[in-house]
Amino acid sequence: MFEVFLVTVAFVALAELGDKTQLLTMVLAAKASRISVILGVVGAILALQTLAVALGATVGSLIPGNIAGLISGVLFLGFGAWTLLASGNHDDHGADKQLAKVTKWGPVVGIALIFFLAELGDKTQLMTISIAANPAAAIDAMAAFGLRATPTAQTGGLVTLSVWLGSTAGMLLVNGLALLAGTLLRERLSAKVISVVSGVAFIGFGVAVLVTTLVV
C-alpha cells in the first residue's frame, strides 16, 4: 500500500507543479492572511480529492483491469498534451476580482471556493480520478522506467485510502511550497519549463502504461 501512496504523491505533485492553482495559491497568499489561505486551500483540497478518489474508485470497480489500463494510458498521454499546450498560459485567473466577490462569506470560505472552482475538473483532479480507478497502471508506469515501484493488481479499501492520502499529500506539498516560498519560486523557477518537463514525463508514462497493458 505504501507504494500506491508514494506513486500517487509523485504523480499528483508532478501534475500540480506549475499548474494554475499553484500560481493561484501564490497570488492569494499576497492578498489575504496566511492562516486564511492555509485553511481555505486545505479545505478545498480535502473536498476535491475526496470527490476525485470516490469517483475514480467507483469507475474502477465497473471497468475490467485491461480496459482500465488502456484508458489510463490514454489519459496520461492526454495529461501530457494538456500540460504542454498550457505551458505558455500562466496567470492568476482574476484572483483579485474573484476574492472581492466571495469575501462576503469570509476570507476562509472565499478562498476555499476560489481554489475549489479553479481546480474542479482540472488535470490534477482528473489525474487523481485516473489513479483511483486503476492504481496498478500508475505503479506499472513507474516500474517500467526503472523507478522503484512494485507492480500491483490489488484493489480495495486500503488501496483507495492510500490513493486519497497520496493525492492529498501531493496537493498539500506543492501548494504548501507555493505558500511558503511563493515569491522565491516565481523568481527562480520558470513555470513554462516546469510544465514542459511535466508534460514530456506524462507522455512517457502514458506510453509505458499502454505498452505494459498491451504486452502483458
Structural class: mainly alpha
End-to-end separation? 22 Å
Order of helices and strands: HHHHHHHHHH
How many helical elements? 10
Instruction: Give unreliable regions as ranges.
Output: none
Average pLDDT number: 79
β content, as a range?
A: under 5%
Shape: globular
- Helix content percent band: over 70%
* Domains, number: 1
Largest sheet properties? none
* Spatial extent as radius of gyration: 17 Å
Find the count of extended strands (DSSP E, 2+ residues).
0
Quick structural overview:
By secondary structure, the chain is mainly α. It contains 10 helices and no strands.
Note down, in words, how this protein is organized.
The protein has 216 residues and is mainly α. Helix content is 81%, strand content 0%. It has one domain (2-215).
